[in-house]
Design a protein that fits this description.
The complex is a heterodimer of chains A (about 210) and B (about 100). Chain A is mostly helical and about 210 residues long. Chain A has seven helices and no strands. In chain A, helix 2 crosses helix 3. Chain A starts with a helix and ends in a 5-residue tail after the last helix. With about 100 residues, chain B is mainly α. In chain B, helix 1 packs antiparallel against helix 2. The radius of gyration of chain B is 19 Å and the shape is flat. The chains are: A mainly alpha (about 210), B mainly alpha (about 100). The interface between A and B is large, with 48 and 49 residues.
Amino acid sequence: MSDTAGALQHPWPDLRMQRAGVSLGMWMFLASEVLFFGGLLVSYAVYRSFNEEAFRIAGAHAQIVYGSINTVILLTSSFTMTVALRAATANVRRVTLIFLGITAALGVAFLVCKGLEYREDLKEHLFPSPQFPLSPPATAMFWGFYWIMTGIHAVHLTAGIAVVLVVWTLFKRRVIPVQGSTMEGAAIYWHFVDSVWIVLYPLLYLAGRS
Amino acid sequence: MTNGRQQDRRYLWQGPGVAWLALLVLFAVSLGSAYLPLGTGNVAINLAIAAIMLAVLATFLMDLRNSVALVRIAAAAGLFWIVIMFALTFSDFLTRG
C-alpha cells in the first residue's frame, strides 16, 4: 500500500530530512534567481526614479484587466500546488495528481492570457520602435522593461509547467512515488514564479492608474 | 475512522485556503488603492502590499514557518543580497551631484 520505501533515497535517514535537503537546494538556487531578477528590478527602480512622470504615462497603457486576471490565476495556482504538495506528503496519490493537473492547467491559462495581452500591446505598437506612440521618449524605457520582465517571467513559468507535467507523468506511471521529495522542489519553484509576478504586477500594471 | 479521514483531507486545503483568500484580499486592496489619488503614496502602498503578499506566500504556502533553520537562512540570503544590491546602487545614483 505505502510506497515509502521507494521514496527514501541514499544517504537520507528519513523522508523528513530528505525533503529538507531538496528544499535547501531549491532555496539556494532561488537565491541566485532573486539576484537575476534583482538586476532587472534595480534597473527599473533607477530609471523610474529619474523618469517618474514618463513611467506613470507609460504604465497607464498596460492592460490591467489581463494583468489582474493573471494575478488571480497565479495566486490560485499557488494554492492548488500547496494542496498537491500536502497530498503528496500524506501519500494521497489521487488528490496529488488532480491538483498537480489543475496547477499545470492554470499555468497554461496564464500563458494564454499573456498571449492575448501581448497581441493587444503589439496592435497598439507598445514596444520600443520608430512607431512607438507615447511621449516623452522615456516611456519607451518602461515598455522595454515590460517586455523583458514579463518575457523572462513567462520563460520561467513555461519551465515550471514543463516540470509539473513531467512530475505528473512520473507519478501517474508510478515511476517515482508521490511521497518522495520530488514535489518539494517542484512546489517551491512554482511558488517562486508566483512571487516574481507579485512584484511585477504593481510595477508594470498599477503605475499611473490614479 | 471516517471522521479522522475527513480531518486529514481538511488539512490538505484548509491552511492553504486561508492563505489563498488572504492573498486575494491583499491583491484587491492593492488594485483598488492604485486608483486613489495619493501621489507617491500609491507606489509605496502597492509595494508594501506586495511585500506582505510575498511574506504570506513564503511563510504559509512555501511553508518556511515549518522549515529547518538552514532552509530559512538560504531563503533569507536572497533577500539579504537584493537589499545590498538596492542599497549600493541607490547610494550611488541618489548622491551624484
